[in-house]
């Protein structure tokens, strides 16, 4: 976080100076706007992630609407994957989450005792995530609290963005008139009003984050496709008195009578979330038709926990659901026959386009990643940095990821409900307790959110130079590593320089030569980026903007930081910022030192040649290039950025 470059201001540095729109909103925050750039329907994880990201841009009008009377207070999702924590850090609230959340360090597996009638016994345990997978842990924090962090970002943004609650989407239409600047028209009805109050909002783009029963999706003529597993589960957040020893560890429990429990400790030290397997459903049944009560869920849990007592003292929230994996065929309004001929205007994200069981803890995480993928693309188009043709990459990229989620969830849910084998050789049953544990470990990177890989596309290269940095895999998220900042010797992570501000990053890893030598490859790169009109920094940055406003260049030297004099580094690496043109001295890094592993070794960076790592605004590695590949670097950005010179 950088501030004060436009002058010292007292108070909370996260509270941006209000824009004209922000001032107007503070004066009248009850009226839906007649026009907006981006209309977001739904205040779930996807909608709020998108709104928070767009709120960073004062020149973008955003309107977010929800039919609920106010913010979420209880229940729903709680698992936060390592990759999601990395994203939270980009938004600036990861440290708050770490302080409040339960940290999932180990997962234990409980199975039926070998002695019939003796209940369950501990069958083994594993580390929840493999060492070194991320600098952040897998944590548990209630969804309402996550919403609160996003709402706070929005409240402090220049436009003072806030949701409009108690408005239900009644209809949505799209104009195909090429001259219509606001082609999306949405009609809302006031929820709970004594008389029918309606309001029409016209938007450049709309995003449906309105859940599995999405009205936005319905308006596009789309439907979720898939099948239910005909299995009912109960879920409850409880305070319980029990002699079960692993209450404060994540547990996967299978009992002799076929009952299953997924136990998730909650934040605060006492609360537990219990997922309880209930009855099989007939093909024509829905869980709601069974009239399943809280008492029945508690009884089923107590039976599975035997021989341990499980005395539920208080229930904060509970629900019943049925397992089903469903996927929408596309995530925008452009039909296959029109692909490439018209830009998308309406998108869907989160549960509006994919649904699944909650036991793998992926739903909220993948929904937020949907929005994180879309937000910077919308911002680039609305701010004139890219042509709107880039927006078609959202559906292409995220549909593939959602398909992987559905396939994984189907396998995992089936495994947790499958009849148990007593031994691998047993004739009866489908799966052994050991096979469940092995599958959990094998899929660890997927459940941590770090296995996502984007295929080569407009934004993702072919990885022809992957050998230069084997640990920064093209198409995957930037796997951070420790460094030290040269200017102030501050230890930090290189990945934490990628914040949710819509900018591209070039991370230049120097070769062995003296980086302050004008004959070095790094110096030559800085000369090119600084002075050549064809460099992407010069070509795609508006002359009246800071030089790093579109592409932020950072460098990592191989030398220890005490041996590098800052005053001898290239002036391009300390660009002027703000109205006073003060220098930004936070662009240069060195290996961490102090006995920590070297980033060049950790990520397999070629020390003799160095490399360029291009990072997307959503923290994914877009391409790896040689240090001297100036023309290739310019050509890569020319694929999607608009010439601003």
From TrEMBL:
<feature type="domain" description="FAD-binding">
    <location>
        <begin position="36"/>
        <end position="408"/>
    </location>
</feature>
<dbReference type="InterPro" id="IPR050641">
    <property type="entry name" value="RIFMO-like"/>
</dbReference>
<dbReference type="InterPro" id="IPR036249">
    <property type="entry name" value="Thioredoxin-like_sf"/>
</dbReference>
<keyword id="KW-0560">Oxidoreductase</keyword>
<dbReference type="Pfam" id="PF01494">
    <property type="entry name" value="FAD_binding_3"/>
</dbReference>
<dbReference type="InterPro" id="IPR012941">
    <property type="entry name" value="Phe_hydrox_C_dim_dom"/>
</dbReference>
<comment type="similarity">
    <text>Belongs to the PheA/TfdB FAD monooxygenase family.</text>
</comment>
<dbReference type="Pfam" id="PF07976">
    <property type="entry name" value="Phe_hydrox_dim"/>
</dbReference>
<dbReference type="InterPro" id="IPR036188">
    <property type="entry name" value="FAD/NAD-bd_sf"/>
</dbReference>
<keyword id="KW-0274">FAD</keyword>
<keyword id="KW-0503">Monooxygenase</keyword>
<dbReference type="GO" id="GO:0071949">
    <property type="term" value="F:FAD binding"/>
</dbReference>
<dbReference type="InterPro" id="IPR002938">
    <property type="entry name" value="FAD-bd"/>
</dbReference>
<protein>
    <submittedName>
        <fullName>3-hydroxybenzoate 4-monooxygenase</fullName>
    </submittedName>
</protein>
<dbReference type="GO" id="GO:0016709">
    <property type="term" value="F:oxidoreductase activity, acting on paired donors, with incorporation or reduction of molecular oxygen, NAD(P)H as one donor, and incorporation of one atom of oxygen"/>
</dbReference>
<feature type="domain" description="Phenol hydroxylase-like C-terminal dimerisation">
    <location>
        <begin position="453"/>
        <end position="643"/>
    </location>
</feature>
<dbReference type="InterPro" id="IPR038220">
    <property type="entry name" value="PHOX_C_sf"/>
</dbReference>
<keyword id="KW-0285">Flavoprotein</keyword>
């Amino acid at each position: 976080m950088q501030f004060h470059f436009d002058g010292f201001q007292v108070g909370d540095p996260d509270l941006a100076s209000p824009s004209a729109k922000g001032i107007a909103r503070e004066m009248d925050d009850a009226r839906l706007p007649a026009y907006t750039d981006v209309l977001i329907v739904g205040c779930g994880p996807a909608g709020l992630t998108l709104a928070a990201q767009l709120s960073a841009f004062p020149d973008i009008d955003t309107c977010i609407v929800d039919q609920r009377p106010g913010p979420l207070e209880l229940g729903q999702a709680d698992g936060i994957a390592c990759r999601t924590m990395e994203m939270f850090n980009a938004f600036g609230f990861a440290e708050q989450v770490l302080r409040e959340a339960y940290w999932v360090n180990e997962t234990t597996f409980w199975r039926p005792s070998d002695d019939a009638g003796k209940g369950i016994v501990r069958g083994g345990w594993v580390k929840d995530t493999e060492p070194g997978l991320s600098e952040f842990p897998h944590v548990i924090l209630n969804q309402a609290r996550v919403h609160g962090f996003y709402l706070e970002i929005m409240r402090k943004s220049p436009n003072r963005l806030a949701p409009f609650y108690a408005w239900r989407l009644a209809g949505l239409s799209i104009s195909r008139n090429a001259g219509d600047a606001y082609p999306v028209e949405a009609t809302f009805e006031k929820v709970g009003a004594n008389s029918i109050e309606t309001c029409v909002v016209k938007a450049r783009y709309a995003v449906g984050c309105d859940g599995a029963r999405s009205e936005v999706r319905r308006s596009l003529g789309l439907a979720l496709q898939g099948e239910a597993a005909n299995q009912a589960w109960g879920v409850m957040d409880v305070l319980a008195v029990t002699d079960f020893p692993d209450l404060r560890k994540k547990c996967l429990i299978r009992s002799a009578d076929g009952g299953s429990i997924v136990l998730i400790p909650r934040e605060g030290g006492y609360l537990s979330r219990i997922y309880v397997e209930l009855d099989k459903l007939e093909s024509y049944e829905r869980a709601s038709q069974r009239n399943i009560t809280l008492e029945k869920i508690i009884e089923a849990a107590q039976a599975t926990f035997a021989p341990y007592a499980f005395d539920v003292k208080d229930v904060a929230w509970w629900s019943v659901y049925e397992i089903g994996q469903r996927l929408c065929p596309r995530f925008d309004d452009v039909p296959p026959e029109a692909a490439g001929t018209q830009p998308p205007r309406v998108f869907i994200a989160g549960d509006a386009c994919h649904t699944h069981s909650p036991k793998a803890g992926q739903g909220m995480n993948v929904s937020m990643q949907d929005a994180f993928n879309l937000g910077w693309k919308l911002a680039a188009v609305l701010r004139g940095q890219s042509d709107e043709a880039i927006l078609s990459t959202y559906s292409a990229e995220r549909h593939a990821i959602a398909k992987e989620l559905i396939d994984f969830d189907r396998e995992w849910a089936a495994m947790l409900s499958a009849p148990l084998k007593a031994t691998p050789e047993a004739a009866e049953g489908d799966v052994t307790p050991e096979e469940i544990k092995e599958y959990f470990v094998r899929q660890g990177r997927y459940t941590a959110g770090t296995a996502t890989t984007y295929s080569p596309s407009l934004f993702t290269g072919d990885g022809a130079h992957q050998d230069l940095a084997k640990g920064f895999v093209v198409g995957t998220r930037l796997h951070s590593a420790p460094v030290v900042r040269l200017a102030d010797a501050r230890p930090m992570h290189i990945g934490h320089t990628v914040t949710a501000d819509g900018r591209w990053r070039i991370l230049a890893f120097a070769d062995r030569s003296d980086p302050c030598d004008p004959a070095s490859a790094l110096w030559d790169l800085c000369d090119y980026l600084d002075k050549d009109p064809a460099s992407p920094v010069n070509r795609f940055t508006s002359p009246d903007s800071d030089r790093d406003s579109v592409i932020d260049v950072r460098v990592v030297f191989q030398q220890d930081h005490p041996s590098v004099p800052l005053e001898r580094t290239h002036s391009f690496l300390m660009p002027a910022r703000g109205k006073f043109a003060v220098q930004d001295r936070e662009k240069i890094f060195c290996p961490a030192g102090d006995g920590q592993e070297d980033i060049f070794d950790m990520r397999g960076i070629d020390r003799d040649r160095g490399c360029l790592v291009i990072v997307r605004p959503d923290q994914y590695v877009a391409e790896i290039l040689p240090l001297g590949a100036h023309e290739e670097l310019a050509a890569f950005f020319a694929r999607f950025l608009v010439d601003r010179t």
